């Protein structure tokens, strides 16, 4: 099915059940160790209860099993059938007569953006927050019924461990993911990549100015200037979708709207806030 820097992915069939799965393989001690770590993360993320995950964990492929061979390690997971967002955008733009024809419709844009934001929010709001770290069109799969899936947890890690490694794809990864940076990596790094993905989906001019303002807010060079959490990204997307409010960039001189939210809890030392609703002013 595909080949990356660290291994291959095969479509396999279980002999007894006839069920099809995706199987990721790795050779060599370093790559096998990375695949085992990915398996642990995938099992952790996709095995929670629906009450814990509010149902949105289904955006990630379910873990099946990890098998060890003499010279290879095999990660078996749910096979996700659909069209990569990268392929769909390429096809639309190749056949388009105008820039607008080469883009997703506004309804499709919001559907993809909201589902991805929900999935990332769930990762970020775990008791031990998880960073996805490799959001890009190639990893987004559009399935039937407007359902979106997010593949490849190979770069995912707990936020507390992100300082140990650099990860991500150039063009989508935040500056602090690929370079030495005083900020280090945090949920704001995934927010940057999310903004770059919004930018890629709306490159032909389909979205309105609100969409472009939200994109710029997510992709600010300085992490402190980015929208602070995916919960607020979701709120902005839904309000824009309903036409009730314009996205406003963060300005230090004026108290931004998110500062009036009631704080439910603060997780990790870097000040990642989980907000629930407006506080009384």
Annotation keywords:
alpha+beta; 33% helix; disordered C terminus; 281 residues; three-stranded antiparallel β-sheet; five-stranded antiparallel β-sheet
How would you describe the shape? Answer: globular
Question: Which structural category do the helix and sheet elements fall into?
Answer: alpha+beta
Q: Radius of gyration from the CA trace?
A: 19 Å
With helices defined by DSSP (H or I, 4 residues minimum), what is the helix count? 8
Whole-number average pLDDT?
79
What's the SSE pattern? Answer: EEEHHEEEHHEEEEHHHHEE
Spatial strand arrangement across the major sheet: 1-2-3-5-4
Number of strands: 12
Brief overview, please?
This protein is α+β, with helices and mostly antiparallel strands and 281 residues long.
Question: How would you describe this protein?
Answer:
- The chain is an alpha+beta fold and 281 residues long.
- It is 33% helix and 20% strand.
- The chain is built from eight helices and twelve strands.
- It has helices spanning 29-46, 50-53, 85-95, 106-124, 175-178, 187-201, 209-218, 230-242, and strands at residues 2-3, 8-13, 20-27, 63-68, 72-78, 83-84, 130-131, 140-142, 148-150, 157-158, 261-267, 272-278.
- Strands 1-2-3-5-4 form a five-stranded antiparallel beta sheet, covered by helices on one side.
- Strand 11 and strand 12 form a beta hairpin.
- The longest helix has 19 residues, at 106-124.
- The radius of gyration is 19 Å and the shape is globular.
Describe how the helices and strands are arranged.
Layout: E1 2-3, E2 8-13, E3 20-27, H1 29-46, H2 50-53, E4 63-68, E5 72-78, E6 83-84, H3 85-95, H4 106-124, E7 130-131, E8 140-142, E9 148-150, E10 157-158, H5 175-178, H6 187-201, H7 209-218, H8 230-242, E11 261-267, E12 272-278
Antiparallel strand pairs: 1-2, 2-3, 3-5, 4-5, 6-8, 7-10, 8-9, 11-12
Helix pairs in contact: 4-6, 4-8, 6-7, 7-8
